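Researcher: Next entry: Tryptophan--tRNA ligase, cytoplasmic (Sesamum angolense).
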Amino acid sequence: MENNNQEEEGQIVTPWEVAAEKGGKIDYDKLIDKFGCQRLDQSLVDRVARLTGRPPHVFLRRGVFFAHRDFNDVLDAYERGEKFYLYTGRGPSSEALHLGHLVPFMFTKYLQDAFKVPLVIQLTDDEKCMWKNLTVEESQRLARENAKDIIACGFDVSRTFIFSDFDYVGGSFYKNMVKIAKCVTYNKVVGIFGFSGEDHIGKVSFPPVQAAPSFPSSFPHLFSGKDSLRCLIPCAIDQGETGKMSASDPNSAIYVTDSAKDIKNKVNRYAFSGGQDSIENHRKYGANLEVDIPIKYLGFFLEDDAELEHIRTEYGAGRMLTGEVKKRLIEVLTELVERHRRARAAVTDEMVDAFMAVRPLPNMFS
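Model: Predicted structure:
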């Protein structure tokens, strides 16, 4: 049996756990091989730019989204005039999202705007009720709170349907769940997801719930008569250098609720630097960019390619100091978090209701 959860090779990658080999990093090449993916190369990036008529997103330009399955087929169909829809989601287990949580939503918004296609966003409140030992009511409350952060990313309500599993699962959606469940053996699901004999049956039976949204017939109010519509799923493995970011360690990530003071403190105290141990040595040898966390964060969130390359060159050569790089990162992250905070404050309960209402999407493909 193929063990896709990577345990036999020293790293674990499942939807719920990400851990590198001891002392090492996540091996992306192994992930690509084991999960049957292909590298998202420059030719695909250029093709997206040509088909959409807009510059590729920073996450595409810099390889943040690094692999795909059948993306060429989606683009082939799009070029023939056949549309597709997007599907992504969020497991609502905490009040606040960190920037790692925002990355797939930021990229999904770009895809929605660029291709002008509909989007379904699944809030797996049932999953978190089972995995995090939350009550049903608390899971539902967190789903609505997290929906506000998602809406704050700027999604188009006329093309977006957000749903919680507790509210929506049933009817055509449930029929697809049953069809999917019949296709997957117990051994296969254990191999893919890493379940053990200690896991309750709710966990083992859950994967079809997350698979069902990839079939348009799960949403008859949106895609009636469009059963062959393709689905594109932007997703992330939610990892840092060696494993999954931890909500239990507030210093392991930048949260959208962090103040400017919090961000400054986290970057200055906890962001590992690749700079040398003295200014003299730093001027002589330069920084090790491969291990420098501020450089990695700037690679995600500093939009200007020329500025990023300038920082990498000067810092790597020792002409720029660690404090200068961290200062620029603090500016970038503070502006990003403040912008998100303002957008979220403007999201009302009525707006959440509008996004989660079961209704046709008026501008679905226009």
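Model: Note for the record: Confidence is low (pLDDT under 50) at residues 1-6.
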